[in-house]
């Protein structure tokens, strides 16, 4: 027997620009794949594959309404990115402070 298919993590899911655009599109409203695919220059099948990856990462929720599936953003998994960014932001802040100090030292008007 084969191993179950690995779920995509949040970082893998947002690595693709099309999937980032999908998240923005779904941020404000729930939409069926037929409407979503009208916003992209690709087939409905290709859009569905991107939605599946986002769903496996927990970023998109799917709901059956009649004969269609509707998709909406679930922002909760984005907290992982926020925490990662916050951890590394301290390094950037240190670099900005050092650059500001260097520029101020080199400024002949001071």
From TrEMBL:
| Statement: the UniProt record of this protein carries the keyword Flavoprotein | no
Q: Which GO terms describe its molecular function?
A: DNA binding; DNA-binding transcription factor activity
The cross-references to PROSITE patterns, in alphabetical order and at most eight, read: HTH_ARSR_2
Q: Which domain of life is it from?
A: Bacteria
The chain positions of domain HTH arsR-type read 1-93
Q: Which UniProt keywords apply?
A: DNA-binding, Transcription, Transcription regulation
SUPFAM superfamilies according to UniProt: Winged helix' DNA-binding domain
* InterPro entries, A to Z: ArsR-like_HTH (IPR011991), HTH_ArsR_DNA-bd_dom (IPR001845), HTH_MetalResp_TranReg (IPR051081), WH-like_DNA-bd_sf (IPR036388), WH_DNA-bd_sf (IPR036390)
Which positions are tagged coiled coil? none
Which Pfam family would be a valid example here?
Answer: HTH_5
Q: Which NCBIfam families match?
A: HTH_metalloreg
**Name of the protein described by the UniProt record:** Transcriptional regulator
């Amino acid at each position: 027997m084969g191993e179950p298919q690995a779920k995509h993590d949040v970082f893998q899911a947002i690595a693709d620009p099309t999937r980032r655009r999908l998240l923005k599109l779904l941020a404000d409203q729930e939409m069926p794949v037929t409407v979503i695919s009208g916003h992209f220059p690709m087939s409905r099948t290709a859009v569905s594959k991107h939605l599946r990856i986002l769903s496996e990462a927990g970023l998109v929720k799917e709901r059956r309404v009649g004969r269609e599936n509707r998709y909406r953003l679930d922002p909760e998994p984005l907290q992982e990115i926020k925490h990662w960014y916050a951890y590394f932001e301290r390094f950037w802040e240190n670099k900005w402070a050092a650059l500001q100090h260097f520029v101020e030292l080199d400024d002949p008007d001071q």
